[in-house]
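Intended use. Records like the one below are meant for learning the mapping from a protein sequence to its folded structure. Do not use them to infer anything beyond what is encoded.
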Amino acid sequence: MKGSIEMGGNALKKVKTRRYNKEEIDIASNEIISKLETVLDTRVFSTKEYKNKESFGDLDVLVEIDGNKEQTLNRIFSILTFQEKADNGNVVSINYNDLQLDLILTEPENFDFAKVYFSFNDLGLFIGRLARLVGLVFGSDGLKIRVESHFKHGNLGDAFITKNPQEAFDILDLDWKKYELGFDTIKDVFLFVSDSIYFSEDITKRGTGRSDKRDKKRRNYLLFEQWIEDNKNKNNWTDYFNKNVSKEKMINNFRKKYPDFNNQIEYLHQKDAEKEEDKKIFNGTMVMEKYLNLSSPKLGNLLGNFYVYFKEKYKGTRFSDFGKEKMMELFDNYFEENYWA
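Structure written out for the chain above:
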């Protein structure tokens, strides 16, 4: 799920919405699901909540999108009328009467995982924090790691261990059968996460990223912090990695156990190495040194356009296939045709 996702009843600014009680939210959920199923031929799912939750600021409904997003939304809006809409990427919020309805648009391959991630209020957030302790990322699209460049190129992309939620729970030492039974209170959600051998009181240790700043404003996150503080002396929570195995070794064990996961990592590093090699053949510094007397911004824009041109004209070909002299010759020709135009 990309971008900032604003839910929790705060996405709509103009239309007045209110909190619903349990009976009202069940009626609204059944009505909305029934209506959506009449216009969509893909899956829809109203996320689960813990049983004793008394009031609801919004309703989260997953909508499987198999194709065009706008086409899916047009079908939805043909049956659901509203006065205000907030589009935050994969989450589209509208008012359904006086309830905020969050439509979470989800790709088919991620639907089963997203059902788990978004259910039981902030459980997905807490499991995400648990996964971070292990060196993994638990998102709405699966259990994965973010692969970093060996050449200081930053984040290369994601490598997925699994998109099967039950398998992800097993990896994180979470009880899938207990999850399927559901939870009565938010405290039961806290207890569920804390049962993992990887749990540590550092789970809520805050970073400086946008998601960290957003998390600390969430009511349940603050309750989780307080619950940990109140219970840390009553439990035997330890730093698993200080006493057992390093995160690096654990990731290496995953690579051995899950060949496809390892192949994804190897592929990303291979492409990164090729990028580094190509930079030695042709790069912006070489161009700037040759054309010292020309406007840097204009030349920089031209260089960016050349990269696009090269990829389109020589698909599947790398700079190293041409060599330094030929690459500079190609750029010189492109320069003559486009710089003075």
